[in-house]
Amino acid sequence: WDTAFGNAATRYPVIATEFGQANIAQPGGTQGCDAGYYTNLLDYFNQRGISWTAWAWHVERQITDPNQTCGFPQVITNYAGTTNSAGNVVRQRMADNP
Fold first, then answer.
1. What are the distances in angstroms from CA 35 to CA 8, 14, 20, 72, 90?
2. Which of 10, 20, 81, 98 has the most C-beta neighbours closer than 10 Å?
3. How many helices, marked H, and strands, marked E, lie in the chain?
């Protein structure tokens, strides 16, 4: 991340508008957004003064298997706004930094 954009943040304003993780095969073959990835990335942004927006309030497909919570770098599992594990991290960070 330093080489890709982190070092630039020491000299220029940087905002992350699209970031995420999806379609990662989990044990058992399920798809999921890793909360740890989002925690690490948002910590990194915070440490370097990088602004960010939540992405994406979009459902790639309706999730019908409870073990599949992320078919796209999405923070919700349905349009009722149910957050997945990544969305829980994003929601908490947004609440912590209004």
1. 26, 23, 10, 14, 9
2. 20
3. 2, 4
- 0.85 exceeded by the pTM? no
Distance CA 40, CA 50 (A): 13
Cα distance between residue 58 and residue 47, in whole Å: 28
Query: Tokens representing 41?
Result: 């990335």
Q: Encode pLDDT of 76-88 as tens digits.
A: 888 898 888 889 9
Q: pLDDT tens digits, residue range 65-77?
A: 666 666 677 888 8
Q: Tokens standing for 24?
A: 């990662």
Pairing status of strand 31-32 against strand 24-25? antiparallel
The string of pLDDT tens digits covering residues 7-33 is 999 999 999 998 887 655 555 545 567
Q: Cα separation of 69 and 75, whole Å?
A: 9
SS3 assignment, position 24: strand
Scanning the structure block, which residue is given the tokens 């999730």?
Answer: 63
